[in-house]
Every structure is written in C-alpha cells, then in structure tokens.
Amino acid sequence: MKRHFVFPVFILFSFFLFFGGSAAPDAPGPKYVFLFIGDGMGLAHVSLTEAYLAAKDGVHGSGNVSFTSFPVVGLVTTHSANRLVTCSSAAATALATGHKTNNNMLGVAPDSVTRYTALTYPLHKAGYRIGIATSVSIDHATPGGFYAQSVSRNRYYDIGSQAAGTGFEFFAGGGFIYPAGRTGDQPDIYAQLADAGYRIVRGPEGAAELSSGAGKAVLVQHEGKDNHSLPYAIDRGDDDLTLSQITRAAIRVLDNPRGFFAMIEGGKIDWAGHGNDAATIIHEVVDFSDAIAIAVEFYRRHPDETLILVTADHETGGLALGRDGSYSLLPTAYDEQSRSIDAAGKDRDALREAVREIDKKAHVAWTTGGHTGIMVPLYAIGAGSERFAGKLDNTDIPNRILAIMHQEWR
Predict the structure, then answer these.
(1) Within a domain: residue 4?
(2) In this structure, what DSSP letter does residue 336 have?
C-alpha cells in the first residue's frame, strides 16, 4: 500500500516543480506603445480600401494596407452606457479610461459627477512620455478623451483648456476650435500652453523642426488654415500638415529610454462616413495606413519593446460592399471623383448626386449618415499583442495596455 501511495505523490511533486515552481515570471512589458484609432473605421472601410488597391493593380483581392498584415486580430464591441450605438466621446472615454459613459459625455460618469482618469495619467506619472495626436482638432472627442473631462463633448474650449495642465509632452492636430472661447473673450489656449512651457509649431516646416530635444510641443496647421481639422487626403495641398508628418514628429519628441505612449487618430474617416463619401474614405484609410507604416518602421528597430494597436471607436455610415443583388464590386469607379463632397462648396449638392451614381457603379451602398452598432476590428503587433486577440469590449483595451506595461490605475 505504501509503494502505491508514494509514487503518485512523487509524480505530483515533480509536476509542480516543472510546471509551477519553474514558471517564468511575467515578460517585460512594452516600453513604446502606439494606439492608432481610425474614427468611424469599420471592417467594410478597410475592405473597400484593400479592394480598391488590388483593383488598381488589376487583380481581385486585397491590396497592401500596412496594418492588416499584423499577426493578431480582434473584434471590439463599442456600445456606450446608454446606447447600443455609441458616439465618439463615449467611445473615447471607454478606450481611454476603461469605463462606459453616456453618449456626448467625455471622461465623466453617467451621474455627471464622477470623473474618470485616462490611462495617460498613470503612465505619465510612471515616467512615460505622452503624445496625443489627430487629424481633426485637439479638442475633439477622441483626442479629448485621453486628457480631458467634460459633461459635454461640445464644450470645446473647456476641453482644450485642460491640455496645458497635463504636462504631456506632445499634442498635434488641426488646432483648437475656439482657442479664445466661443465669444473670443476667454484666456487664449495657445497662450496657456506657451506659459506651461510648450513650444507651438505650425505646418510641415514646424513638424520637420521638432526633435528629441524639443521639450514639450504642440504641432498644428498654419495660421489662417482651418483649425477644425487637417484637409482630407484627397483635397490636401503641399503646405498642409499630414498625419504621417505628425507621426514622425511625435516619435522624435517622445522617444526616450524610459518609453512612451502615443494615441494617434485618423479622425476624418468618420467625417467622410457621415457624408457617405466612399472615395474620400479610401484616401483617408490609405493616409491612416501611411502613418501607421511609420510606427511599423519604429517597431522594426525595437521589436521586443514596441506594441502597435490599430482599432476604431465605432463604424460610421453602415457601409455595404455589394448591392442590388449583384455579386460585383468595382471600386475603381471612385477614380472618377477628384475631391471630397465637403470641399465642393456651392457644387456640393451636384457632387453628392454624382457620387451616388458612382456608388451604384461600384456596387457600394450605405444604411445611415450616422454611426452603427457593429463590432469594429483591432489589429496588433509587437510586445504583448497576443493579449488583444479574440472578442473584446472597448473598455478592455486600456486595462490590458496598463496590465502589460505593469502599471496600475492611480
């Protein structure tokens, strides 16, 4: 009896030593984290862009979009606290703080009292440099979610005026919608930033000036240009700032031995989706992909220390690839369009009608001029990327980022 008893105990003890006692400690987390958010970018937007690029090469299939080759893919649910169809500010709150809130609220709980903390704050406290960049205005919903708190996403001055107090090292975008308030009589946001030690630079030339020794910096469009956003890629001029230039500048400013976190938004995919403007969406997704490719260059220099995440806050437009019972998709039909609907001015209505005819030729359709409630894709590569596979909720993303960086909410 004793021999039969001792042998299993020995086996169990050996099993514990091999699989338990010798277990490796947690792998070191990434030092450099990029979170790219394609505002409004659903899977159909990505698929249409890939199909267009393939068709330009004369084949049916998927063309080369930088991030769709990432080895880890997930699906993300996006509902807000009070709606199955989220708005951008509620989604930004979830992506930045790990908490749901009501539509139109930013960094604030549904009770309008409790304030949520974005993951940028504990990371900054731990010594990581922080960058927040976008192709729209810095006080818009998605960038605002990573540094500000407001009971209404429409309080642009209130949101923008919180940037200077963060101490974060880099902000970039079109500018601020109301830098001196809606009536122009509030303390100027740019002056607040300058007083807080930020260097304000503008346009492509300003982007090129920024380096690792730049200190804290704000990069925006030239004075006199639209401060609501950068132009759509399809409409862009040579003197316009681009998301790729912003991304390169962000890396130069943020790169340091301790590490950094950068949130970079392709914000006008959403705007084109609201306008059901497929050609403009294609150009915006390509532009977004080009910016991500710059982060991939950085990842290749630091493959064991870098994490790149690409996702969306929601889908916009209910884009459908296929219509009217046809099994055809002809995305090169969008070559007929040379500017966005928004840039058409007095010809806007006529261009919109022309675009609806191009949609028919391309066999593309829309269900809404607003957002939808479908899941959005997530693509990941680098250190800790395996934690983002499968089905997630948008609130899981910041929690998992902090966990793999061995940081806590505080």
Answers:
(1) no
(2) G
Per-residue pLDDT tens listing for the chain (410 residues): 444 444 444 444 444 444 444 334 467 789 999 999 999 999 999 999 999 999 999 988 888 899 999 999 999 999 999 999 999 999 999 999 999 999 999 999 999 999 999 999 999 999 999 999 999 999 999 999 999 999 999 999 999 999 999 999 999 999 999 999 999 999 999 999 999 999 999 999 999 999 887 899 999 999 999 989 999 999 999 999 999 999 999 999 999 999 999 999 999 999 999 999 999 999 999 999 999 999 999 999 999 999 999 999 999 999 999 999 999 999 999 999 999 999 999 999 999 999 999 999 999 999 999 999 999 999 999 999 999 999 999 999 999 999 999 999 87
CB–CB of 30/384 below 8 Å? yes
Whether residue 369 contacts residue 53, with contact meaning beta carbons closer than 8 Å, is answered with no
Task: Give residue 187's identity as a one-letter amino acid code.
Answer: P
Q: Which domain holds residue 117?
A: 29-404
Sequence-separated (6 or more) residues with CB below 8 Å from residue 189 = 157, 160, 161, 163, 164, 176, 179, 180
Residue type at position 349: D
The verdict on residue 263 lying in a domain is yes
Report field, pTM of the whole predicted structure over 0.90? yes
Give the Cβ contact number of residue 211 at 10 Å: 12
Cβ–Cβ under 8 Å, residues 177 and 153: no
DSSP conformation letters of 224-276: TS-TTBPPPGGG--TTS--HHHHHHHHHHHH--TT-EEEEEEETHHHHHHHTT
User: Which CATH number do you get for residue 254?
Assistant: 3.40.720.10
- 3-class DSSP state of 129: strand
From start to end of 60-198, where are the E strands? 72-77, 129-134, 170-172
Contacting residues for 78 by C-beta, under 8 A, at least 6 apart: 86, 91, 94, 312, 313, 314, 315, 373, 375, 376, 394
Number of domains in the chain: 1
Tokens of residue 160, six digits: 């923008």
Neighbour tally for 262: CB within 10 Å:
28
Contact 186, 158 (CB under 8 A): no
In a domain, 160, yes or no: yes
First-to-last alpha carbon distance for the chain, in angstroms, is: 57
Beta-carbon neighbour count of residue 85 at 10 Å?
17
Is 20 among the domain residues? no
